[in-house]
Design a protein that fits this description.
Order of helices and strands: EEEHEHHEHEEEEEHEHHHEHEE
Strand content: 15-25%
Distance between the termini: 9 Å
Bound molecules: zinc ion
Number of strands: 14
Radius of gyration: 17 Å
Length: about 270
Amino acid sequence: MGVSVSVLASGSRGNSTIVQSSSTRILVDAGISCRETFKRMKACGEDPRSLSAILITHEHTDHVYGLLTLAKKLSVPVFMTGPTHQAWARAMRDETGERPVLARFEVFSAGRGFQIGDIAVTPFTIPHDAVDPVGFTFRAEGVKVGIATDLGYVPVSVCDHLRGCDVLMVESNHDVEMLRGGPYPWSVKQRVASRVGHLSNEALAQFFATDYDGNASYIVLAHISEQNNHPEVARRAAEKALSSRRTFYYRVMVAAQSEAMQPIQL
Ligand SMILES: [Zn+2]
Ligand SMILES: [Zn+2]
């Protein structure tokens, strides 16, 4: 069967991705409802009951919206950093009046690798306005998958983690001009464009043209803004930057908000 990556949803209205080996299935973020997660998993030919774990990158709603219901229904372990768990629990308590309880909760720290089944997970810090946001790399069966969305810029440490990936899922949130002229209030525009906001097509292109090692067979452009970007604008910017590099065969895919992307099989 090998390793595969299925992006169930990507964008400011919910993020959820499955990374799996032959024997282990990890859900990265639970940003869409439990019902929608099940529906999209089934559409990809996946059985929700076969999930091994849920990993959370940070506490923003578009990454945790369906978490509590999913964790209850599936009774799988949920992995979060300590500060992210606290922030999430506080927000849930403020919303519902009671502190949420996860039957199986595992804590991890950015920079410290751990194992889930046969998948080696490495969480790393990313610059974003959450309490303790992380990206992940996953290694299994000789394949490396990297996921880095929700980051204001690409620091050297993140470049290092993303080296050698076979599948690279990275944020291409907005086109700088579209954001500037778009409908958001000024304060929100400032937040998105800041060093702890979201990665622009231009900043990602800069990464592709300079620090990226050209290793990935699949590049997934993710967390695309529906107001301040367009899938084809993001794709063109990425492909233009990538074409300046001497790389082997690769494919650029764009993850969508409203439907699951065709699974990547390695
Ligand atoms: Zn997000
Ligand atoms: Zn976020």
